[in-house]
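Researcher: If convenient, please comment on what follows.
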Amino acid sequence: MALILGLRMLTHINDKNQPQMVDVSEKKISLRTAHAQAEVFLPDNIFELIQSNELNSKKGPVFQTAIIAGVMAAKQTGNLIPFCHPIGLEDCRITIEIKEKNYVRIDCIAKVESKTGVEMEALTGASMAALTIYDMCKAMSHDIKVQNIQLISKTGGKKNFQRV
């Protein structure tokens, strides 16, 4: 049983106000997808390196490493977030592209055929890719900002979602 707060149900809180994992045993298996995004603001000196295709830090190629880190994190979401069900991702794709001057957009799209969705996996993947960019570039500037981490869409399960 979930706690009702206003008109919303908190599914991870039981009727005794204690934390709980959501029981998905009665749910049907379906194809579930989620698309999450994060933005990274890069100061001019780092952004200029992107423009010249020379964004390699002492730690290695920044965007390629961020993609790998994001996928690895998405696969570990159930170990990172206490009540997240561990799922075997069937696909996880991360793309990184220049959005506008000084901004890089990270997209993470995750898929699974399961009883539970993949929103948290997509959000974790996008977040970790963004944090990896920060980590690899922080020696050049601490003015980097990770921002606007958000779910863009999800399909499967009870209801779909599309950010407008």
The mean pLDDT is 90. The longest helix spans residues 119-137. The CA atoms of residues 91 and 111 lie 5 Å apart.
